[in-house]
Structure to design on (622 residues):
């Protein structure tokens, strides 16, 4: 019987494990990937300060701490079901059943698919797949590719591919269909671009992005968007071009690119065939909460957080006794926020287990403040309404407690 | 075998002192590095396609690379449904691609055999009885 | 143009989903049972948001607080020998 089983060895799960081990709790961390670190492992970008955020190094720091504290971490284990029992939770995995008093679900996020014709061909992959292949496995995903979907995540990973010497033709939008909707709308995409422009190496673009906070400026920018795209790190980003089809028989051979209007409609006769051997699809992230769902945790749909999120409070507790959540399952944010949330969740679990543990309330208050401070300082923000989204989910928790 | 390897990286540094691991894919022997997943070792060797869709035969490869989509499932040492993106290679591991399978219940009524002779003919393509 | 596949596991196209949703004014669950979208090997992890988006487009309804396509255990494919207690 464990005091806590933590599902997910990413930044949230590992930080929580560290906090729990510091109070000597009996902890087990499981993860289905062969290495610990979760999606943090693949991350590699330059902060506005010029410093590199290297996910492999950041994971090593967390793992060193966890190892010093003798934390039990098992990788390559998949949880397929969780049952609530009288004394806690039973976690069913391919390596047997683990019993625990408390449970932390830190399963992160999954990528939202952006289907376009031909996307099942070998050579088409999610942008996150390319990130892991490049930075974790050190394997080139192809010789020349195109990124479909322009957003915070895809711009960051496109840069990572370039760093590794992988040639990208350009980034463009997906063709509009009932699923791609906002991803295919130049005006919506422009709103998102403005939020990442401060990361651009060019002072000119950073300067422009300040003006583009106003809607009328953005509308002009969309209407007069340059034909050749706007270059970021030498690679054209097109928001007035869309990939309408991926071509090939056994694997990706080319894509068909079209001009689109400011509202995302295809300009007839503008088709161009571009030879590529891989395509990365980027539709953003949504919280991966299936395990919380099978236990019966209540959910709330909060657009600002990326979709359906398990109801939880500021201390990372859910309405189910002994069930905690941390990281991207609670809303799409950066790894730094996930890490801070993990520490907080760990402290909340310590409190749950040891009750009147010394100074625990003060530590929790400090951790809550730290999550907010990290969020406020984040250089990459996935949704501008993140604070509003957080308020929504916390008030859902209060309502749930009352009823 | 290192043709798709990123051996030199401006931030992550050089890829050095890797331990080679031999495994087979559909009977051919390949070499990957210790710590490679089946998917990364095969892609490093230039192999993308891991299976075909069981019903339509459409070629498939990795899609999500983190265990969510199951598009990369292969047969490992005679256990099927193993995710190539989540499974580390071991020395002498036997990996086989996912194959086309019989779909006896997917045909349309107008395609069903009306006589025993028609049934025999349709169920014994290539002289081998099909399920 | 090729047909646009939404559910990769079961190769269900956008056209199949739209036609079924229009013809039967489906709930998410009914749509899944009729077309098999989301019922394949991955358990709907890849196409669930896409199927929800198509349904939203057809019915005009915003997503509610309950997850439209109920998540059922096991959330990963498991062999019977593992369920029977054999480890891996």
């Amino acid at each position: 019987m464990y005091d806590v089983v933590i599902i997910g060895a990413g930044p949230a799960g590992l930080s929580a494990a560290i906090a729990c081990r510091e109070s000597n709790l009996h902890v087990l961390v499981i993860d289905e990937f062969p290495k610990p670190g979760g999606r943090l492992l693949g991350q590699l970008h330059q902060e506005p300060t010029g410093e590199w955020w290297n996910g492999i190094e950041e994971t090593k720091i967390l793992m060193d701490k966890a190892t010093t504290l003798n934390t039990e971490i098992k990788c390559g284990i998949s949880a397929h079901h969780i049952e609530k029992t009288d004394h806690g939770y039973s976690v069913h995995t391919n390596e047997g059943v683990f019993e625990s008093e408390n449970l932390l679900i830190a399963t992160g996020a999954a990528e939202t698919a952006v289907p376009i014709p031909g996307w099942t061909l070998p050579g088409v992959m999610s942008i996150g797949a390319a990130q892991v292949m490049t930075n974790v496995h050190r394997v080139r995903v192809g010789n020349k590719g195109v990124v479909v979907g322009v957003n915070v995540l895809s711009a960051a990973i496109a840069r990572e591919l370039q760093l590794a010497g992988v040639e990208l033709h350009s980034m463009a939008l997906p063709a509009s269909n009932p699923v791609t909707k906002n991803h295919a709308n130049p005006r919506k995409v422009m709103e998102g671009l403005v939020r990442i422009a401060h990361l651009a190496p060019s002072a000119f673009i950073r300067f422009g992005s300040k003006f583009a906070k106003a809607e009328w400026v953005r509308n002009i920018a969309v209407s007069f968007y340059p034909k050749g795209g706007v270059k970021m790190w030498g690679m054209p980003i097109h928001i007035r071009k869309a990939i309408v089809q991926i071509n090939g028989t056994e694997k990706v051979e080319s894509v068909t690119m079209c001009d689109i209007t400011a509202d995302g409609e295809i300009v007839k006769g503008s088709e161009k065939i571009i030879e590529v051997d891989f395509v990365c699809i980027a539709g953003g992230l949504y919280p991966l909460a299936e395990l919380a769902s099978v236990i019966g945790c209540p959910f709330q749909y909060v657009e600002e957080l990326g979709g359906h999120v398990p109801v939880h409070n500021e201390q990372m507790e859910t309405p189910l006794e002994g069930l905690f959540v941390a990281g991207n399952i609670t809303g799409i944010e950066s790894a730094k926020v996930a890490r801070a949330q993990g520490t907080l969740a760990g402290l909340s679990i310590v409190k749950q287990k040891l009750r009147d543990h010394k100074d625990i309330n003060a530590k929790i208050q400090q951790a809550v403040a730290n999550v907010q401070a990290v969020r406020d300082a984040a250089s990459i923000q996935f949704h501008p309404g993140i604070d509003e989204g957080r308020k929504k989910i916390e008030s859902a928790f209060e309502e749930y407690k009352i009823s | 075998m290192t043709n798709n390897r990123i051996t030199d990286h401006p931030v992550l540094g050089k890829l050095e002192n890797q331990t080679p691991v031999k495994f087979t894919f559909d009977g051919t022997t390949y070499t990957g590095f210790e710590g490679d997943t089946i998917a990364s070792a095969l892609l490093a060797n230039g192999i993308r396609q891991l299976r075909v869709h069981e019903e339509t035969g459409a070629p498939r490869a990795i899609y999500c690379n983190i265990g969510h989509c199951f598009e990369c499932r292969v047969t490992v040492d005679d256990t099927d449904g193993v995710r190539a993106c989540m499974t580390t290679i071991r020395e002498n591991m036997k990996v086989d691609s996912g194959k086309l399978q019989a779909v006896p219940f997917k045909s349309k009524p107008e395609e069903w055999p009306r006589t025993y002779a028609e049934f025999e003919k349709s169920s014994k393509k290539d002289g081998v009885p099909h399920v | 143009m090729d047909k646009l596949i939404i559910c990769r596991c079961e190769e269900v196209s956008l056209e199949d989903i739209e036609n079924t949703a229009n013809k039967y004014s489906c709930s998410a669950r009914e749509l899944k049972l009729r077309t098999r979208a989301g019922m394949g090997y991955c358990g709907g992890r890849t196409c669930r948001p896409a199927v929800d988006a198509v349904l939203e487009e057809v019915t005009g309804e915003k997503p509610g607080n309950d997850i439209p396509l109920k998540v059922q255990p096991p959330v990963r494919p498991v062999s019977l020998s593992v369920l029977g207690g054999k480890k891996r």
Notes: The radius of gyration of chain A is 22 Å. Residues 2-110+285-402 of chain A form a domain with the FAD/NAD(P)-binding domain fold (CATH 3.50.50.60). Chain A touches chain C through 38 residues (CB under 8 Å). Chain A has eleven helices and 21 strands.
